[in-house]
Amino acid sequence: MNIRLATVKLVGEETAVIIAGEKAVMVKRVNKAEGKKWATKLFEIIDCGQLREMTEWYNREGKEKILNGEIAELDAASLDYQPLYRNPSKIWGIGLNYVDHASDLGEVAPNTEPASFMKPKTSIIGAGETINIPHQSERTTAEAELGVIIGKVCKDVEEADALDYIAGYTTIIDMTAEDILQRNPRYLTRSKSFDTFFSFGPQFVTPDEAQDLMKLEVSTMINGKLHRKNTVNHMTFNPLNLVSFHSKVMTLLPGDIISTGTPGAVVINEGDVVECRIKGFEPLVNHVRDLKVVSKQELAAETGV
To answer: What pTM does this model have?
Structure first.
């Protein structure tokens, strides 16, 4: 059973859509055509436990109806994607989860417990939005990652049962003010928490749609070129382990996000374009702006110098 969902902006409003190949339909249009009463925001669909019912409808008849044009549709290629949602209760990030990435940084990868940290929801942006390098950083990196989205209340869950608590997956680009972190490891939270430092989306993919989780290949791209790639089975702590581990720290709630670590971080600069690519997922693409450069340009425009 599989389905793809996204949040898009239409007439100034963020609303959930169902993606079917090159077509998309607003959930509110499905409600009207099919007599459903599903939530029209993606977070609420997950939080209210409506995802299973929606997925069953989609696989039973909905996909065919969408592809046949029986429900008013949109062109999936021209959608104005937004973050999947903006108010998760928690965002967990995982550091150095690929051994190869740790060696890049001259560090030893954790091998007994995951190195995790939390990020604020104010760091969230979506596909096509701009990553801002802050004034405080001279070396900021971007990191493509697989995101895990929790589907129901999850506490003290064993790894063998963790898949039952996963609503789906998405693409993520996580940012780090690396020079701030390198000054002192206790600055980790600050280095990860600037506005625009967590790009999230553009599509939500249910577990069956993602096929073989452990074979998914995650790639960090910069200006159209591959920087680093690796597969999930080369993580030290796989996504199911991460769900189990963190559920034993605190209760995970529907819509909570675990960003599972990157195969490689790339330094970003003014004008760069960074991407997260995972085979079978819509790519996540963001442009980069350096606020220090922008300030200098504005000053020059004002002074004529």
So the answer is: 0.93
